[in-house]
Each structure stands twice: as C-alpha cells, then as structure tokens.
Amino acid sequence: MHAVALRYFREVARQGSIRRAASVLNVAASAVNRQILKLEDELGAAMFDRLPGRLRLTVAGEMLLHHVELALNDFERVRGEIDGLRGVKTGHVSIAAVDSLLVDWLPRALDGFRADFPAVTYSVYAAAPADIGGQIAAGDVDFGITFVSRLPPGLELAAAIAAPLGVVMPARHPLARRKEIRFDEALAYPILAQQGPLPPTIDVDPDFAAFRDTVEARLTSNSIHMLKHAISHDMGIAFFTRFGFLREIADGEIVWRPFASARINTLRLGLVVPTSRALPFAASAFADRLATALRALEAAG
Q1: Is residue 275 part of a domain?
Q2: How many angstroms separate the Cα of 169 from the Cα of each of 74, 186, 188, 194, 230?
Q3: Structure pTM?
Q4: Which CATH number does the domain housing residue 205 bear?
Q5: Residue 278 has what DSSP assignment?
Q6: Cβ neighbours around 88 below 10 Å, total
Q7: Rounded mean pLDDT, 274-280
Q8: pLDDT tens-place string over residues 112-149
Q9: Which domain holds residue 71?
Q10: How many separate domains does the chain show?
C-alpha cells in the first residue's frame, strides 16, 4: 500500500474527520476520501464507523493504525538514513512544546537548523505540559519539550534545564527593583493570567498553588502573545518562565524576577524523546541540536 494512502488514513484517524484531515494535509477532501475508500476496498473491511459529525475507527481500523504508525516511522527513519548516505538532508520533524517556547526560542533554534537542513519540513504544536508525554508515546510527534515530571514508559529526558515560574513585568514596574518577589507582594498589583492547566510539577510548591487560588486576574487569556502585549502596555504582571520573553528581556523592555520560594524554583523543562522507537534521521539531528541549545540557554543564564 502506498505511503500517501497510509498518511491520509493516519490523519483521518487523528482528526476524526475527512474534511479536517484534508485541511491539515493541505489537499482536497475528495482526494482523502478516495484514498480511504481504496484502502477499505483493498483490505475488504471498513476502517471507520461513519457516525453523525465524525468518523470512529473500527477494530480493523485500530489494527491498521497501529501498523501505520510503526511503518511510517520506520519509513521516515530509513529514508533519512538513505538521504544521509547520498549527502541529502530531507525528512519531516514533528514537535510538541509548551507555548512559551514557541514565541521566541524554538523558532530561532529551528531557523538555525534550517540553514543546515534546508529540505526538512516541520510540524510544531503548542500543547499543555501534561499532554506532551502522551503525544510522544503515541507517536503523534517525534519528541517534545515540557516541564519535567514522571515520564510514561518508553520515554526519556535528552536534556533538562532550570525553568522556574517567576514574575514578568515592564522594566519600569516598582517590583522590577527587587531581586526576588514574595507572593503577597505580587498580590498588590493587577495580575494577568494564562488560561489553562498549570504544569503538573507545580504541586512541588503548595504555597504557590494556594497563592494562585487567591488571584483575581484583571485579564485572562490563552494566548501568550496577548499577555505579552498586555504586560508591555503596563496592564499588569504575569507569572511565566523567562523563555517566552528572551528578546524583550535582552532589550530591557521587560523584566523577569524569581519568586522568593525555594520550591517553585526547582521546576525544570526537559527535552523528552522516545526510547521505544528510533527517531527519523532529521528528527534525531534536530533533537540533538535542541539538547545542545537548551544547555547553552541555561549556561547563559
């Protein structure tokens, strides 16, 4: 069976919809549907139950999806190795990361890698910290960067760096003069909050969890870009790692200060890779590059 048909099938299984899969794949929905019908005809079984508003894998579809994940991963790995022998650097890399890394650090790292691997394509997803390990284990992405916690079987840390949550504010803010900030001091100012779950490792500091429960945010958003602009316009302070604000901190526009809490300062970000499967050539090379970049980021302070 042709690799294109398998890729189309995998995306339909992930999206639960031919239309959404076609949008992700950037092809016509009719082309995706045609490949699915050909697959079902060749295998002599339905791969999906056609339910109102969605498609659900049949038992046969579940069996095929397991095979497809293994086959496509092996195909990409072998293709990358063959390309490497030819001196050609191609392939596809899929990554999931906490959204603060997607603002500045990861795009710059990707741009540097692109200079050496110009033919590689990428899929980069923002994901909740608690979801990233499962996405890697399931083969939905090659690897990910998330807050370090207990990893599922089949995963390991390739690199990890200190990533405490602290206070992000304009450089002219009164708290910017402090070396560290107590929780009660932060409550004296308008607070901007990011919508969504906190990192699963946040329970290492029950004092911070209790503090967060008392916060009444002036502005709540699921967009770090929105919150960054709100901070720059002096609408309030927010609680993040420094990694989503590297350029603004370097330019002196924004200041990051740690909390006066030893436990919140033990949080770490890690590059998580699978051990149950070999990464394709390009993904393995990019993971190695990111591991080095993470260590350099920590060394630079």
Answers
A1: no
A2: 47, 11, 13, 14, 10
A3: 0.70
A4: 3.40.190.10
A5: P
A6: 13
A7: 86
A8: 898 888 888 899 999 988 889 989 988 889 999 999 87
A9: 1-88
A10: 2
